[in-house]
Amino acid sequence: MTESTRLTTPFTARATADEIIAGVDLTGHRMIVTGGASGIGRETVRALARAGAEVTVATRDPARAEDLVAEFTGPGPGTVRALALDLADLDSVDAFVAGWTGPLHALIANAGIMAVPDRRLTPEGWELQLATNHLGHFALARGLRDSLRSAGSARVVVVSSGAQLRAGIDFDDPHFARRPYDPWTAYSQSKTADVLLAVGIARRWSADGITANALAPGVIITNLQRHLSEDTLRSFGVTTDETGAVAVPDHYKTPAQGAATTVLLAASPLVEGVTGRYFEDNQEAAVVPGGPEPMTGVAEHSVDPAAADRLWTYAEETLGARRR
Ligand SMILES: NC(=O)c1ccc[n+]([C@@H]2O[C@H](COP(=O)([O-])OP(=O)(O)OC[C@H]3O[C@@H](n4cnc5c(N)ncnc54)[C@H](O)[C@@H]3O)[C@@H](O)[C@H]2O)c1
């Protein structure tokens, strides 16, 4: 992709999800938002349902989406329901896939965890951030491929992060079995894997009418930061006063603004047919060398087709060899 072919939209970085799809009618569109009960995912669900979509919130605890379901119960065109899904538990992913019937117009891989302080493993022995953010979503997307195909035209949207700039995939030790565990390196690796998943799907499923793109939502205060200490948050410029009010730097977004790029990729006609790309602030991002310095753009290692293919094979083999 060159500068001249980079896709631009009329939307500013501050546009909200509702502004992005104003006038778009999603009636009859069936969509899944993982992690849709909180944070950015919750605002994604609301914007898509307001535009008329039938949205399924895939969440570990469906009770947490009760108010969302209630908000869209009634005469309006959009509906919301909540179904159980634990991405770190492949039996749960399999059960979710087995329970899905009919077409699927958009799969939004939004759920995620960040900077888990110690090296935690799933029952299969996989590092928790890679397992949740990537391997669970890989299994989910693969399991739902027929449903995506049967929609005729379907989109996969993967919520990554600017953290993908900081680390590629360590194919020799993805689960930190030998190298020292670092919470941020593990997060960055998993977010690179998110972009590579979109690239991998774009390389394989285009003939099925399925597109896939990844994005960074910006920086938004949500439950995602729960593993960060007050000192770390202060170093990011986030402070909490004695009343509990949180003050954030100017570049932080609201959840509704954070959901905007996801909604652009899931539903806007502006990106019809676009696949294998990475967006931030509602525009396609520039490809840059990864490393500690760049704050925007997508790292070369995150969109490298060879890395995408290698990760795809790795994920297939890993899932195939899972402990029962
Ligand atoms: N908030 C930010 O500043 C920011 C920045 C960059 C990227 N992101 C990405 O945005 C996405 C949404 O994060 P958010 O900020 O809304 O945080 P959040 O914590 O509010 O939402 C994440 C959701 O994922 C769910 N989840 C976690 N583990 C799961 C599992 N095993 N199975 C099913 N669901 C699980 C959580 O329950 C939660 O609902 C994440 O992928 C995150 O990496 C967020």
UniProtKB/TrEMBL annotation:
<dbReference type="InterPro" id="IPR002347">
    <property type="entry name" value="SDR_fam"/>
</dbReference>
<dbReference type="InterPro" id="IPR036291">
    <property type="entry name" value="NAD(P)-bd_dom_sf"/>
</dbReference>
<dbReference type="GO" id="GO:0016491">
    <property type="term" value="F:oxidoreductase activity"/>
</dbReference>
<comment type="similarity">
    <text>Belongs to the short-chain dehydrogenases/reductases (SDR) family.</text>
</comment>
<dbReference type="InterPro" id="IPR020904">
    <property type="entry name" value="Sc_DH/Rdtase_CS"/>
</dbReference>
<dbReference type="Pfam" id="PF00106">
    <property type="entry name" value="adh_short"/>
</dbReference>
<keyword id="KW-0560">Oxidoreductase</keyword>
<protein>
    <recommendedName>
        <fullName>Probable oxidoreductase</fullName>
    </recommendedName>
</protein>
